[in-house]
Amino acid sequence: MKVLAAVLHSAKSPLSIEEIEVADPKEGEVQVRMLASGVCHSDLHVMKGDLPLGMPVVLGHEGAGVVEQVGKGVTSVAPGDSVVPIWRMSCGLCGYCLSGRPALCDVGTKMRFTGLMPDGGTRFKTAGGDPIKHYAGVSTFSQVSTMPEGAVVKIDQDFPLQDAALISCGVITGYGAVFRSACVEPGSTVAVFGAGGIGLNIIQSARLAGAVEIIAVDPFDSKKKHAERLGATHFINSKENNAVEAVMDLTGGIGVDFAFEAVGLPEPMEQAYDVTKKGGTCVVVGIARQDARAKINVNSLVYAEKTLKGSIYGSTRPRIDIPRLINLSKSGGLELEPLLTKTWPLTQINEAYASMERGEVARSLILPQEV
What we know:
- The chain has helices at 41-48, 95-98, 106-114, 161-182, 197-209, 224-229, 243-250, 266-274, 298-303, 318-330, 349-357, and strands spanning 2-8, 16-22, 29-38, 57-58, 63-70, 82-85, 124-125, 131-134, 144-148, 152-154, 189-193, 213-218, 234-237, 256-261, 276-284, 307-310, 340-345, 363-367.
- Helix content is 29%, strand content 26%.
- It has two domains: 2-154 and 336-367, Quinone Oxidoreductase, Chain A, domain 1; 174-312, 3-Layer(aba) Sandwich (Rossmann fold).
- Strands 3, 5, 6, 9, 10, 17 and 18 form a seven-stranded mixed sheet that branches.
- It has eleven helices and 18 strands.
- Strand 17, helix 11 (349-357) and strand 18 form a beta-alpha-beta unit.
- The chain has 371 residues and is an alpha/beta fold.
């Protein structure tokens, strides 16, 4: 099948919209027509060269679509089903999967770093017949993508696919960081460094968890309205203020019970740790450069009994948590409408990323079928 896709040929270069060939699904695989795909910093890290990956590659890891066809042995989905891709697919059999930590599955991890399917091959080719690598096993910036059955979750047919795309990464990661990684308790105080797609969902999840003070920290004033709309009680512009001092002032010099970093840079990671109170928990969610290092006062780690931990995919169980989040959205508890600022056709994907870098959007979506 020939379709259009956004292909990255080299780091620090624009995505190229070009016709590629997508192979039919093999045994245990599904083919999905992508109807919405999220514009996320994780892909930008690859585009900038912060996260090395073989090229050329079809990026995109957040999205939703409809199953076109399935390979032999596939039982969980059928053609016509609405699905959400899982960008950290899990085998379901290893120790990580069986212990409730599927995001750490070695199969999904290997796919992320090799850009290949579990059998070591690829299902994409250029117009000239050269192989193209996959991103996170799902490559949602292609109009049609072939992926493992373990990389999709079937969802309710009547649930809007643009909303489902938001849930597939930004929402579930923020929700999981609060409820799974940090276990925020009612009455807690929270600081969130970074009010982008992930940070905003940490904010609204902290509100759902019953936090009484939620401090958003971001260098763009444009994020203030989004943060407050979703539950932030305070907003600090980190360009104009010393973020640590400002948070400490708001908390009477004590710090917060839970601090979250959702930027992927060492400085806000250090700041999040520094504003964590004695006995508090700091959770790092942002994806950083592979060689990034943050300076942490290890003395306070001991004497203040702070907890510092990482969170990939919000430490969630997507096959359980995605349906739960859909139901939470249907009941009105989870707000999705304030998250979506703009949609873009596939041909304007580079403009979409430029807009994100300028801090103009909360979250935006690529509509792959629109060109």
